[in-house]
Design a protein that fits this description.
219 residues, alpha/beta, Rossmann fold, 3-stranded antiparallel sheet, 3-stranded parallel sheet, 17% strand, globular, binds 2'-O-acetyl adenosine-5-diphosphoribose
Amino acid sequence: MGAGISAESGIPTFRGAGGLWRNFKPEDLATPEAFARDPKLVWEWYDWRRGLIAAAEPNAGHCALARSERAHPNFTLITQNVDDLHERAGSRNILKVHGDIWIQRCVVCGSERQERNTPLEEVPPRCGCGALERPGVVWFGEPLPPDIWAAAEHAAMEAEAFLLIGTSAVVYPAAGLAAAAKRAGAMILEINVADTPASSWVDYSLRGPAAEILPAILV
Ligand code: OAD
C-alpha cells in the first residue's frame, strides 16, 4: 500500500502532481543528512503534511479495506503511508513499515511521544530533556522497524492474494514484498492509476483510482 490510496483524500503523493514542497523532492528531505543539515526545514515539511492529514478524511478506498479486514480474519494491511487514514477508516491489523507521522522521537534519549498538535507550537520541536525531536518515520537509508518488517514479510509469505495499491513500487525494501509474495505463491493484483515497474509481472492490473476500484471489488 502506498500514497496513492490517500490521494483522493487530498494528500499529495510523493512522486505525483503536488508532491514537491517548495521544490524539494522527498529524497531531499526524508533523510538523516537533511535533518542534520537543517532540522527546521525538514520539520516544516512534516508540519505541512501533518496539517493536510489532520484536515483529511478517509476515502471509500480506506473504508473498503477496513470492511474487508472485518470480513476476512487473516487480512493484513501493510502500508508505507505514515498518515492515520486507515486507522480512522476502521482498519486495525496494520503494519506501518515507514513509521507514523504523529510520533516524535528524541534524537538523544530516544523517548517517543504522540503529538497531534498542528501546526506545531515549536519548529523544530524539543524533548523534555532539551534535545531535538525527529519525526517517528523511516528515512531513506534507515532500517525499517525490525518487528513490523518481520511481520510484513511473514504476512506476504503466507498470503494467497496480495493487493498492491497506489504505490510507485520503487522504494525498497517495501517494493520487494509483492515480488516475494508472488514467489511464495500469492496472486498479485495491482491497483493504480498508472503503470509501475511491477505492472509487467503482477497477475492482474486494474487501472483507476483506488477509491473507486476497491469498493467495487472487495467484499
Ligand atoms: P509515490 O508517490 O511514489 O507513488 C504513488 C503511486 O500512487 C503512483 O504509482 C501513482 O500512480 C499512484 N496513484 C496516484 N493516485 C492514485 C489513486 N487515486 N489511486 C490509485 N493509485 C494512485 O508513493 P509511494 O509508493 O507510497 O518513503 O512512495 C513510497 C515511499 O517513498 C514513501 O513511503 C515515502 C516516499 O519517499 C519515505 O519517506 C521513506
